[in-house]
Amino acid sequence: MSETPISISSLNDFVFCPVSIYFHSIDADEDDLLIKDEYQLKGTDSHKSSDSATYSTKKSMLQNICVYCEQYNLYGRIDTFDVEKGILTERKKKIKTVFDGYIFQLYAQYFALIEMGYTVKKLRLYSMDDNKIYSVKKPESNTEMYEKFNALLKKIDCFSFETFCQENAEKCNNCIYEPLCSFSIKK
Ligand code: SF4
Q: Structural domain tally of the chain?
């Protein structure tokens, strides 16, 4: 297990490209307007209602609460958790593909909630633009994804910028940080 706590939100970034975590961290606040394109700003907006706790006033709905998972040394926030129904939901602006990184973010939140003593019955992703819900199997019901989750955490633990080499040109072609990135395969 990593000695440095790992941010839950960085799991999806790491799957895309480890270097993008660095860029993501420096454009987290007001720099959003300088670096992010319109689509990504909209993606950020998808979490605004829960960030300001306006998504629901139901007392049984936990929103935007900070969590820490000791087992995996992960920290971050959950998007929405319906305590009564035991449903954990991560909202995205629009889901075109259910990326592994989305599922790993849910797993991290799931393990943190369990440690806190909550009963989590269902995991799901919610695509806000088209109002679609994607059910996600819990890690104990999906051995393959659970192993991938563990492998990802080990990979993050061992990661070094010194030895990293991006080999997937498609990722750099689709990366908003490409103009700033010295690791780009295009350079
Ligand atoms: S430009 Fe390429 S190497 Fe740099 S962050 Fe983006 S995907 Fe990663």
A: 1
Q: How far is the CA of 156 from the centre of ligand 1 (A)?
A: 16
Residue-number span of the structural domain to which 66 is assigned: 6-161
Q: Is residue 87 part of a domain?
A: yes
pLDDT value at position 11?
Answer: 93
Q: Give the least confident one: 9-18, 23-32, 142-151.
A: 23-32
b/e 118-144 (16+ beta carbons within 10 angstroms → b):
bebeebebbbbeeeeeeebebbeeeee
Q: Tell me, what CATH number does 114's domain have?
A: 3.90.320
Per the domain annotation, does 184 fall within a domain? no
Cα 127 to averaged position of ligand 1 atoms, centre (Å): 26
For residue 171 and ligand 1, the question of a CB distance below 6 A is answered with yes
- pLDDT tens per residue across span 40-94: 444 445 555 554 444 556 678 999 999 999 999 999 999 999 999 999 999 999 9
Q: Is residue 20 part of a domain?
A: yes
Residue 167 lies in a domain: no
Stretch 101-121: mean pLDDT: 97
| Residue 68: C-alpha distances to residues 116, 118, 135, 176 (Å) | 9, 13, 24, 30
* Measured distance CA(125)–CA(104) in Å, rounded: 11
